[in-house]
């Protein structure tokens, strides 16, 4: 599959501090790539380089087969950026804001393009309202409309659902999924919400101290943590259970007289349940909690 964006050995130094340390990655056509890491990992600096706001110290960036430095205007006309933390001009209307950006991108038939996108995102009725009077969710939709005016091949999305209530965040994610499916759009996606990353991203890149420390599908990353949390509820014989778990050296927590949880390898779950049944324990409920992308994020951030 051809890559829309290719980054090779990207490096950015601020004096003696290296913010981005020789990273390389691709964004394939029609894919959503999560770009994650704790604060200070190098995500923002990388995005600033990709949008031309910051120069790089070393490395190459190729967009649609063209070198970003020598074809910067060509590249920037075919990508866009959206963030929950960016705002448009507050005292003019939504339509006027979008018209300004349409002219900046030299969009032909700007009026028709704006109206089509407002209709697509079901916010045509906001056209004449001042941007400053919109709700957070409405501003997010307008910002996404802005990012699509130039029919980009790549959108850089920085925390697009930040500060949104769950219902509006879910609708925003549905719009992102719809965009990817209908327009074969490539997206580089940053977020601190691991559930939404798991939902929308095909692959995930983890940064730490300016380096890429992991890249895989969300499922592939969670499989790197072999343990699951097994939670059991039982009728009686607490002592038999604790003796058994202590003998097997399984770390466990006794929550009350009838509930215990333990962290064990997933393959051992059937064995534990079988052994306890043979010891006469009547298990009334079983819950297996597998690792999530948030567990992976915390593991990388702490180790």
Descriptive notes:
- With 303 residues, the chain is of the alpha/beta class.
- The protein has 11 helices and 14 strands.
- A 6-stranded mixed β-sheet has the order 6-7-8-3-9-10. A 4-stranded antiparallel β-sheet has the order 2-1-4-5, covered by helices on one side.
- The chain is elongated, with a radius of gyration of 24 Å.
- The two termini are 33 Å apart.
- The mean pLDDT is 90.
Structural class: alpha/beta
Tally of alpha and pi helices: 11
* pLDDT < 50 stretches: none
User: Beta fraction of the residues?
Assistant: 25-35%
Major sheet: order of its strands?
Answer: 6-7-8-3-9-10
Can you give the mean pLDDT?
90
Overall shape: it is: elongated
Q: State the end-to-end distance.
A: 33 Å
What is the radius of gyration?
A: 24 Å
Tell me about the biggest sheet?
A: 6 strands, mixed
Helix content: 25-40%
Number of strands: 14
Element string (H = helix, E = strand): EEEHEEHEHHHEHEHEEHEHEEHEH
Structure at a glance:
By secondary structure, this protein is of the alpha/beta class. It has eleven helices and 14 strands. The strands form three sheets. Strands 6-7-8-3-9-10 form a six-stranded mixed beta sheet. The chain has a four-stranded antiparallel beta sheet with strand order 2-1-4-5, covered by helices on one side.
């Amino acid at each position: 599959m051809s890559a829309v964006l290719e980054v090779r050995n990207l490096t950015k130094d601020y004096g003696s501090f290296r913010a981005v340390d020789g990273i390389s990655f691709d964004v394939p056509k029609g894919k959503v790539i999560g770009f994650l890491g704790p604060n200070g990992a190098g995500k923002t600096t990388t995005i600033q380089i990709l949008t031309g706001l910051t120069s790089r110290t070393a490395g190459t960036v190729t967009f649609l087969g063209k070198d970003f430095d020598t074809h910067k205007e060509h590249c920037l006309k075919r990508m866009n950026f959206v963030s929950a933390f960016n705002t448009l001009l507050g005292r003019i209307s939504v339509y006027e804001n979008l018209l300004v950006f349409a002219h900046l991108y030299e969009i032909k038939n700007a009026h028709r393009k704006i109206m089509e996108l407002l209709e697509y995102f079901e916010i045509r009725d906001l056209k004449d309202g001042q941007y400053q009077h919109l709700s957070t969710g409405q501003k997010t939709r307008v910002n996404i409309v802005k990012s699509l005016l130039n029919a980009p091949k790549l959108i850089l999305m920085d925390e697009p659902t930040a500060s949104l209530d769950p219902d509006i965040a879910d609708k925003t994610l549905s719009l992102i999924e719809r965009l990817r499916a209908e327009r074969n759009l490539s997206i580089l996606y940053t977020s601190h919400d691991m559930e939404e990353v798991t939902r929308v991203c095909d692959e995930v890149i983890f940064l730490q101290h300016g380096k890429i420390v992991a890249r895989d599908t969300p499922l592939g990353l969670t499989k790197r943590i072999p343990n699951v949390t097994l939670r059991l509820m039982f009728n009686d014989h607490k002592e038999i259970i604790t003796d058994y778990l202590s003998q097997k050296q399984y770390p466990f927590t006794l929550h009350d007289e009838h509930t215990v949880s333990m962290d064990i390898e997933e393959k051992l779950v059937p064995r534990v349940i079988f052994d306890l049944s043979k010891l006469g324990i009547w298990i009334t409920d079983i819950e297996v909690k597998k690792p999530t992308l948030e567990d992976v994020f915390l593991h990388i951030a702490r180790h």
